[in-house]
């Protein structure tokens, strides 16, 4: 998966197996809509494009079906799942409760090295020019921020749940990204959230995280 470079420390560990590599790469293409919703998925073509055997690719697709990013039909094959805007309310209902929890836990539990990495990520985002970023780069920033906080929370079950629902929210985000204005405000919220977590300001981090999710849903509904 393409990742944002933030300095000497990497907040996301590199995939360690061929199946993990396939999972990360295909997941990225599905989230970013590089594999369009409802399009057929050819495991042989993916295997050749990624330089990974068909067995790891098929294993990855099974995991991605559990994540609701792909869907398989008997005798028809495997397809990228559709993006249903009616799912926004359901996804937001979960995230508005769990994102603040993750932010609070991260602010309370993150070890010093992770706090330093979160600060470095905030600095990198703040120093960059949002207007010069491509669509793909903007969404990679967004994913990196959220996943970094989930990991810093130190609860693998919470992390897995939030990664799954944030991935689904990001697909919706990608559909409407070209119509969203004031993306700089969204980025500013990321910076404030990262700094609150890194500084151990649990209440502030919790509030920003909740407002961020609610603001995302409101922004999408405003342009539907």
TrEMBL record:
<dbReference type="InterPro" id="IPR036388">
    <property type="entry name" value="WH-like_DNA-bd_sf"/>
</dbReference>
<keyword id="KW-0804">Transcription</keyword>
<keyword id="KW-0805">Transcription regulation</keyword>
<keyword id="KW-0238">DNA-binding</keyword>
<dbReference type="Pfam" id="PF07729">
    <property type="entry name" value="FCD"/>
</dbReference>
<dbReference type="InterPro" id="IPR036390">
    <property type="entry name" value="WH_DNA-bd_sf"/>
</dbReference>
<protein>
    <submittedName>
        <fullName>GntR family transcriptional regulator</fullName>
    </submittedName>
</protein>
<feature type="domain" description="HTH gntR-type">
    <location>
        <begin position="16"/>
        <end position="83"/>
    </location>
</feature>
<dbReference type="InterPro" id="IPR000524">
    <property type="entry name" value="Tscrpt_reg_HTH_GntR"/>
</dbReference>
<dbReference type="InterPro" id="IPR008920">
    <property type="entry name" value="TF_FadR/GntR_C"/>
</dbReference>
<dbReference type="Pfam" id="PF00392">
    <property type="entry name" value="GntR"/>
</dbReference>
<dbReference type="InterPro" id="IPR011711">
    <property type="entry name" value="GntR_C"/>
</dbReference>
């Amino acid at each position: 998966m393409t990742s944002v470079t933030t300095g000497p420390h990497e907040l996301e560990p590199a995939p360690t197996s061929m199946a993990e590599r396939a999972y990360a790469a295909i997941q990225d293409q599905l989230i970013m809509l590089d594999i369009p919703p409802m399009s057929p998925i050819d495991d042989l073509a993916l295997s050749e494009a990624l330089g990974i055997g068909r067995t790891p690719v098929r294993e990855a697709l099974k995991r991605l079906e559990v994540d609701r990013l792909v869907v398989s039909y008997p005798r028809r094959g495997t397809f990228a799942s559709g993006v249903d805007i009616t799912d926004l309310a359901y996804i937001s209902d979960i995230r508005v409760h769990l994102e603040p929890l993750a932010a609070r836990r991260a602010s309370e539990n993150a070890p010093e090295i992770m706090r330093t990495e979160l600060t470095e990520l905030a600095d990198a985002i703040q120093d960059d020019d949002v207007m010069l970023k491509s669509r793909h780069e903007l969404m990679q920033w967004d994913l990196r921020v959220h996943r970094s906080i989930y990991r810093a929370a130190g609860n693998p079950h919470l992390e897995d749940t939030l990664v799954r629902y944030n991935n689904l929210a990001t697909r919706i985000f990608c559909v409407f990204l070209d119509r969203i204005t004031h993306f700089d405000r969204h980025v500013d919220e990321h910076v404030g959230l990262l700094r609150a977590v890194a500084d151990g300001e649990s209440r502030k981090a919790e509030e920003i995280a909740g407002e961020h999710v609610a603001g995302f849903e409101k922004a999408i509904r405003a342009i539907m």
